[in-house]
Amino acid sequence: MPVENLKGALPDFAKDVKLNLGSLVTTSALDEQRLWGTLLACAAATRSRRVIAEISDEAAGVLSAEAFRAARGAAAVMAMNNVYYRSVHLIGDEAYAAMPAKLRMTIIGNPGVDKADFEFWCLAVSAINGCGRCLESHEQVLRQAGVPREQIQEGIRIAAVVNAVAAVLESEAALAGA
């Protein structure tokens, strides 16, 4: 199993990350589509070749083709939106927030999967990318859709752990000269 491959690749100093990764997959309260879509979208957001490859391999066996595409689409559109909306927010001049973004985001309106799942994946990617404005927006949409805070927290936890796995493995590869 590819997630087991990732766990096995983590060094001893990252034991907590390894244990957290294992528990994400085995004790999740999320349904399989929401869980594996979140893992896949977060893997893409880390930009780690190893993490993307391993999680994609396992997610492909769980997700429908539409869900696999939508999770990757969430990572793609949020890679753009998180930079834009985080920048507009950090500039601090509300005149920028009033301007139209002029960015195509049609996948958000028609992701090909349940809207709440897509929003969930966007929220998790926004956590990795550090966009407060997007986190607030997607959390509000999810709450309005009836998603409990505990599930939203789990999505953020998945983002944190997948990001940590990528950071550790990329730093190990850099130290090994790979």
TrEMBL record:
Keyword flag tRNA-binding: no
Residues in Carboxymuconolactone decarboxylase-like domain copies: 95-175
Top EC class, one word: oxidoreductase
Leader peptide range in chain numbering: none
Keywords: Antioxidant, Disulfide bond, Oxidoreductase, Peroxidase, Redox-active center
Protein name in the entry: Alkyl hydroperoxide reductase AhpD
Reactions catalysed according to its record: N(6)-[(R)-dihydrolipoyl]-L-lysyl-[lipoyl-carrier protein] + a hydroperoxide = N(6)-[(R)-lipoyl]-L-lysyl-[lipoyl-carrier protein] + an alcohol + H2O
Record EC number: 1.11.1.28
Oligomer status and interactors: Homotrimer.
Gene3D superfamilies for this protein: AhpD-like (1.20.1290.10)
Stored InterPro entries: AhpD, AhpD-like, AhpD_core, CMD-like
Active site (UniProt): C131, C134
Record carries keyword Metal-binding: no
Entry's family note: Belongs to the AhpD family.
Domain of life: Bacteria
Gene name tied to this protein: ahpD
Known function: Antioxidant protein with alkyl hydroperoxidase activity. Required for the reduction of the AhpC active site cysteine residues and for the regeneration of the AhpC enzyme activity.
NCBIfam families for this protein: ahpD, ahpD_dom
Disulphide-bonded residues: C131-C134
